């Protein structure tokens, strides 16, 4: 038996081995201890800038006024009426939709399960072609207007960034190589699930694109990524859809936005078999069982065991394990089902 | 001063590269070279942040460093923004 107190004095590599073999208390201790160290470090860094008080999952939208500054001016907070700025209103509405999805679907209180305030910065920087999660809050650029437009206005982008928060609090997947590609994968998975809910689409109507509404007509492509056909969303899209084409380079933190195409494709194929709601539940429960260094094989193994558990509880369709196994086999990750 | 800037990662995952030469007054050039040489701690929970690899070649040698979204010196950030705008 591994209690939390014991786990703190066990070296991380041993905790990782125990977590890998299904010891959830070790997994929790591993993630918690890393999180505590990280939070202490960032708290010291941010002592003069941040108020770390517990929140109620309230939304706060700040306007960066095209400067590279976060929390520059608070322009709308929970319960306040819409203002003239549509980016602000969109960030408010979409982050509320994401919060509501996790609350109503999984009973999750905000992104950490503990009522963390949801803080967004819009109009960040000048011609800034990006959106990011920094461990505490989201930040969105307006885009340069040539290739990209307002990142804060896209439901899938907002969901993607918020789910980086969910992943941080529930699995703390490190941001490099395969664990990093899984981190990106979970953000794309719930980005696409929540986008379909927001647009009231079913899986046959959905385009399975990520970031289609942040690219301009001049951009050489239709979106940033495609879950259905990785590698085809634009002229720069190098995502593989099979382990045979796995990216082994050092760029992009060893391909976190590249190799995520492989599990993304498997998720799409699984949804075709058992539907997006069963898949969302399996993936969410799997995320809660993963750990910092989990790789693709760990992911598939955990998906299968999670699906077996959910089938035994009559919460998902009976052919889920077969569907997941077939889908991952098609991308070169055949699981061993026991 | 010659510059070579690689930007990778980010939500889009689309790398960008800028290369060229600019004429800066001596004080400004010194400020930029010193900014590249100074290493500051990055924020490890950043997700989808850009990674900036910056290489400056001044009269007294080559200065190269890699930065994340949270530790990119503001002088280099505005230099990159100007370069991006002029490449538009
Ligand atoms: Zn991401």
TrEMBL record, chain A:
Active-site residue numbers: 161, 257 (proton donor)
One Pfam family of this chain: Peptidase_M4_C
One GO cellular component, as annotated: extracellular region
E.C. no: 3.4.24.-
GO biological process: proteolysis
Localization per record: Secreted
Necessary cofactors: Zn(2+)
UniProt keyword list: Hydrolase, Metal-binding, Metalloprotease, Protease, Secreted, Zinc
Sequence ranges assigned to domain Peptidase M4 C-terminal in this UniProt record: 171-332
Gene Ontology molecular-function annotations: metal ion binding; metalloendopeptidase activity
Record domain Peptidase M4: where: 60-168
Role according to the record: Extracellular zinc metalloprotease.
PANTHER family given in the database record: NEUTRAL METALLOPROTEINASE, PTHR43579
Family the UniProt entry places it in: Belongs to the peptidase M4 family.
Name under which the protein is recorded: Neutral metalloproteinase
Species per Swiss-Prot/TrEMBL record: Zobellia amurskyensis
Taxonomic placement: Bacteria, Pseudomonadati, Bacteroidota, Flavobacteriia, Flavobacteriales
From TrEMBL, chain B:
Superkingdom in the source lineage: Bacteria
Protein name (record): Uncharacterized protein
């Amino acid at each position: 038996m591994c209690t939390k107190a014991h786990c703190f004095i066990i070296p991380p590599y041993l905790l990782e081995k125990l977590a890998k073999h299904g010891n959830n208390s070790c997994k929790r201790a591993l993630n918690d201890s890393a999180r505590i160290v990280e939070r202490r470090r960032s708290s010291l860094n941010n002592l003069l800038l941040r108020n770390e008080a517990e929140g109620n999952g309230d939304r706060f939208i700040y306007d960066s006024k095209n400067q590279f500054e976060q929390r520059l001016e608070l322009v709308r907070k929970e319960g306040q009426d819409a203002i003239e700025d549509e980016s602000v209103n969109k960030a408010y509405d979409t982050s509320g939709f994401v919060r509501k999805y996790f609350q109503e679907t999984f009973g999750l209180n905000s992104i950490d399960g503990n009522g963390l305030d949801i803080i967004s910065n819009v109009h960040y920087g000048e011609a800034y072609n990006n959106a990011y999660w920094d461990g505490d809050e989201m930040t969105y650029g307006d885009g340069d207007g040539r290739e990209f437009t307002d990142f804060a206005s896209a439901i899938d982008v907002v969901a993607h960034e918020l789910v980086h928060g969910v992943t941080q609090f529930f699995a703390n997947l490190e941001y490099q190589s395969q664990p990093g590609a899984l981190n990106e994968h979970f953000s794309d998975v719930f980005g696409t699930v929540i986008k379909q809910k927001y647009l009231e689409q079913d899986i046959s109507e959905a385009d399975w694109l990520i970031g289609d509404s942040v690219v301009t007509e001049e951009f050489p492509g239709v979106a940033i990524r495609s879950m259905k056909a990785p590698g085809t969303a634009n002229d720069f899209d190098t995502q593989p859809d099979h382990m045979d084409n796995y990216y082994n380079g050092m760029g992009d933190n060893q391909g976190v936005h590249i190799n995520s195409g492989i599990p993304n494709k498997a998720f799409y194929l699984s949804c075709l078999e058992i539907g997006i709601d069963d898949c969302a539940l399996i993936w969410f429960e799997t995320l809660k069982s993963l750990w910092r260094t989990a790789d693709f094989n760990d992911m598939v193994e955990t998906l299968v065991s999670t699906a077996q558990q959910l089938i035994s509880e009559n919460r998902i369709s009976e052919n889920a394990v077969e569907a997941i196994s077939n889908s991952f086999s098609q991308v070169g990750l055949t699981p061993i089902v026991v | 001063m010659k510059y070579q800037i690689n930007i990778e990662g980010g939500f889009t995952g689309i790398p960008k590269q800028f290369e060229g030469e600019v004429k800066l007054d001596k004080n400004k050039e010194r400020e930029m070279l010193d900014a590249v040489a100074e290493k500051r701690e990055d924020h490890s929970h950043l997700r989808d942040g850009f990674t900036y690899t910056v290489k400056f070649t001044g009269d007294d040698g080559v200065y190269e460093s890699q930065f994340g979204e949270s530790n990119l010196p503001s002088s280099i950030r505005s230099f990159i923004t100007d370069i991006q705008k002029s490449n538009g």
